[in-house]
Design brief:
The protein is mainly alpha-helical. The protein is built from 5 helices and 2 strands.
């Protein structure tokens, strides 16, 4: 329900989680190009950070993931624009972008684990950061899906009421 002040002007409510998500979204939009460039460089050059030639399966993985992360970055930029303009569509975009990010994280983690050839230390290093990142994304997904505050904050264009 849209709240209005005594003059009939809509009051837009926000919260600490909304502000924190906005900060994280802005930082992500600025920092994501670094990840995209690194994946594209691995995919183009075919060597890892130590200069070793990537095996064919790993090269295919980096080429595929470079495209997925590029698409994900474009989605985050579009989502950020809608989010900071408090557009109603931002809620659906955030949910869709988070679902895509979770799917790409699962794809990247599963593919890396499959190519690890049973190296338990490497698998642990892969799953270590992936598990918390996935849980955080799921928590934000649930927040944007269920929160009434999100619906009260992302209101433009305003309904004629």
């Amino acid at each position: 329900m849209l709240r209005r002040d005594e003059f009939g002007v809509p009051t837009i409510r926000s919260s600490f989680p909304m502000g924190f998500f906005g900060l994280c979204l802005a930082l992500g939009v600025v920092l994501r190009p670094v990840a995209v460039v690194s994946y594209i460089m691995f995919a183009i050059r075919g060597v890892d950070e130590t200069g070793q030639t990537l095996p064919g399966d790993w090269h295919l993985m980096f080429r595929t993931l470079a495209g997925v992360i590029l698409i994900e970055s474009v989605l985050f930029i579009i989502t950020a624009w809608y989010y900071f303009n408090r557009r109603k569509a931002a809620r659906r975009l955030v949910i869709g972008t988070l679902l895509f990010a979770i799917a790409s994280l699962v794809l990247q983690t599963a593919w890396t684990v499959a190519l690890a050839d049973g190296d338990e230390e490497f698998i642990a290093k892969t799953l270590g950061p992936a598990a918390p990142a996935g849980l955080i994304a799921v928590a934000w997904l649930v927040y944007f899906w269920r929160s009434k505050r999100v619906r009260e904050t992302l209101v433009y264009p305003l309904n004629a009421a």
